Amino acid sequence: MRKQIAAANWKMNLTLQQGEQLLTHILAAAKPSKQNHQVVFAVPFPYLAMAQERISGMAGTFIAAQNCSDKKSGAYTGEVSVEMLQSLGIRFVVLGHSERREYFNESNRLLAEKLNICLENKMQPIFCCGEALQIREAGTQNEFVAQQLKESLYHLSGEQLQQVVIAYEPIWAIGTGKTASSAQAQEMHAFIRQQLAAQYGATVADSISILYGGSVKAANAVELFSQPDVDGGLVGGASLIAEEFVAIISALK
Ligand code: PEP
């Protein structure tokens, strides 16, 4: 049975003290309630150690970095390597968020390198994909997402791919308050799974968790997560409000 995941993306928000308080509230109120449920907190780099310590010993709860370097180590001032993350006990890394693609020029090719270094080091990537508004309006979102998958993922073996979590995040729905309808989300998630099945076979495709991201909140999480190919969410704004994220965790199917 594939994993159902509620992943928080704090982005560049909160002080250490605010982050600690938020985690304390959420962890006290919500725990993964089924064997196949996972809760992930993608926190800023300086808070990783604090967060990792807070979740220690909690089943089904993990900390993620929001990015990592494509290089192993060396003279790359300001970068953070997978090995460093691993030494803190971090299990997941968000890769290819649209904000990194847009503001830091991360290409499908660079993301393929980051995926490689994560997988070589047993770190699970949460790989983000998704189209901008003009692509959706032109009706070419399937081709666009298929290209992102092809250029970043298809060099991986089936076994490697099974370590990857995919997050479909239509850019027009991120931080805009405009959510894809559950039908739009299901349609794209089914398309992504179909593409993976064509490349890797149905067994591999069926085992991959595909999260939806884009203005997920307590009020729409049940409806979105109830779709057969939506395996939870990657949540920005609403993950900064304890009651919202707790409700999102309990909306996992
Ligand atoms: C995100 O940060 O990945 C995201 C989906 O943000 P929001 O939930 O705020 O739209």
Q: Could you please describe the fold and organization of this structure?
A:
- With 253 residues, the chain is an alpha/beta fold.
- The protein has one domain (4-250): Aldolase class I (TIM Barrel, Alpha-Beta Barrel).
- It is built from twelve helices and eight strands.
- It has an eight-stranded parallel β-barrel with strand order 1-2-3-4-5-6-7-8, surrounded by six helices.
- Phosphoenolpyruvate is lined by residues 9, 11, 97, 169, 174-175, 213-216, 234-238.
Short summary of the structure?
With about 250 residues, the chain is an alpha/beta fold. The protein contains twelve helices and eight strands.
Features:
253 residues, alpha/beta, TIM Barrel, eight-stranded parallel β-barrel, 8 strands, binds phosphoenolpyruvate
Helix content: 40-55%
Estimate what percentage of residues fall within beta strands: 15-25%
Q: Write out the distinct hetero groups bound to the structure.
A: phosphoenolpyruvate
Label the CATH architecture.
Alpha-Beta Barrel
Q: Helix tally?
A: 12
